[in-house]
């Protein structure tokens, strides 16, 4: 479960001793509950002499873990949901949640207009057919592996724009942030799917190989021509929309079981408590349509002779 994965991140922040305090913890909320009474004491202790009486009252493991936290002035945040229940996710916070724009047109397509567009379009088509042949209608597996690829372009583009901003001593128009937001959103799609299906060893090996090749290929293509790279991503996102439409069709006609939505998806997209996989795929498809529009727009800006920084980035969707 993601909760457990998230819980395991806490010790990285607070020191390995925290693991000793949570030997039976199965979720991040358990760890947060354990730490809640300790947090105020931590802050006091950091700015005053050690209280030996207090130390004697507490288990040795707690003392060790709180010393680390106290020293660096970092304490775990205590967050609650709107209904007052504890916030259980460390990988994202309540203010990062959002409602997907379901009114977005999922049928939009950028018709290739020039040689560059045709290169981008046929590159994606060439990648699409072997992928479809490999996965066929194994939607869950397809979606999971697709997301490991989909999260690459935003990170590469965002990283390169970040460095460009530093190198040129100029603003980026918010595009580095917008692209990094996209990468994080894609990663959250993946975190959602792994709640429903776990990759087999050969799928993990495939992801490793594909990431090695795709990251480098996209990095070089973005260095050579950002407008081509964004066009390629625009077409990749169009295909992502199409594959989620096929997923939805099979959920609707009963070929794929419409299971209960994972808790992480309900919190991330602010879905109703009784949401199902169909709702999750619907919001993910809306996200992909948004990425499609952002990347085609980014390519258009540059094709028209402008720089990305000249047009304010579409920030704030995710
Ligand atoms: Fe995605
Ligand atoms: Fe996407």
From TrEMBL:
InterPro entries xrefs: AOX, AOX_sf
Record Gene3D superfamilies: Alternative oxidase
Cofactor binding remark: Binds 2 iron ions per subunit.
Reactions catalysed, as given in the entry: 2 a ubiquinol + O2 = 2 a ubiquinone + 2 H2O
GO molecular function per UniProt: alternative oxidase activity; metal ion binding; superoxide-generating NADPH oxidase activity; ubiquinol:oxygen oxidoreductase activity
One annotated Gene Ontology cellular component of this protein: mitochondrial inner membrane
E.C. numbers: 1.10.3.11
GO biological process, one term: alternative respiration
Membrane topology category: Multi-pass membrane protein
Primary location class: mitochondrion
Record keywords, A-Z: Electron transport, Iron, Membrane, Metal-binding, Mitochondrion, Mitochondrion inner membrane, Oxidoreductase, Respiratory chain, Transit peptide, Transmembrane, Transmembrane helix, Transport
Keyword Electron transport: yes
Enzyme type, top EC level: oxidoreductase
Cofactor: Fe cation
Localization: Mitochondrion inner membrane
Alphabetical list of CDD domains matching this protein: AOX
Keyword Manganese: no
Subunit note: Homodimer; disulfide-linked.
UniProt family annotation: Belongs to the alternative oxidase family.
Protein name in the entry: Ubiquinol oxidase
Organism: Aquilaria sinensis
């Amino acid at each position: 479960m993601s909760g457990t994965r998230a819980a395991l991140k806490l010790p990285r922040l607070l020191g390995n001793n925290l693991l000793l305090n949570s030997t039976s913890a199965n979720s991040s909320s358990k760890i947060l509950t354990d730490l809640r009474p300790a947090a105020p004491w931590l802050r006091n202790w950091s700015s005053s002499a050690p209280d030996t009486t207090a130390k004697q009252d507490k288990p040795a493991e707690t003392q060790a873990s709180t010393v680390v936290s106290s020293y660096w002035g970092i304490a775990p945040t205590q967050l609650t949901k709107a209904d007052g229940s504890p916030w259980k996710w460390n990988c994202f916070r309540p203010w990062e949640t959002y409602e997907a724009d379901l009114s977005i047109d999922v049928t939009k397509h950028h018709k290739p207009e020039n040689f560059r567009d045709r290169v981008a379009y046929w590159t994606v088509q060439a990648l699409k057919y072997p992928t479809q042949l490999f996965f066929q209608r194994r939607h869950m597996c397809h979606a999971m592996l697709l997301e490991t690829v989909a999260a690459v372009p935003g990170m590469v583009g965002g990283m390169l724009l970040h460095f460009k901003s530093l190198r040129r001593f100029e603003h980026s128009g918010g595009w580095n942030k917008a692209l990094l937001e996209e990468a994080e959103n894609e990663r959250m799609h993946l975190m959602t799917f792994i709640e429903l299906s776990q990759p087999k060893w050969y799928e993990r090996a495939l992801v490793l190989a594909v990431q090695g090749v795709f990251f480098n290929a996209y990095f070089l293509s973005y260095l050579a021509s950002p407008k081509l790279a964004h066009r390629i991503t625009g077409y990749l996102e169009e295909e992502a929309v199409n594959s989620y439409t096929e997923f939805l069709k099979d959920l609707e006609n009963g070929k794929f079981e419409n299971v209960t939505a994972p808790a992480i998806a309900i919190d991330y997209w602010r879905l109703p408590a009784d949401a199902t996989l169909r709702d999750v795929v619907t919001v993910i498809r809306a996200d992909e349509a948004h990425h499609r529009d952002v990347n085609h727009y980014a390519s258009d800006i540059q094709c028209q002779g402008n720089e990305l920084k000249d047009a304010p980035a579409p920030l704030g969707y995710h």
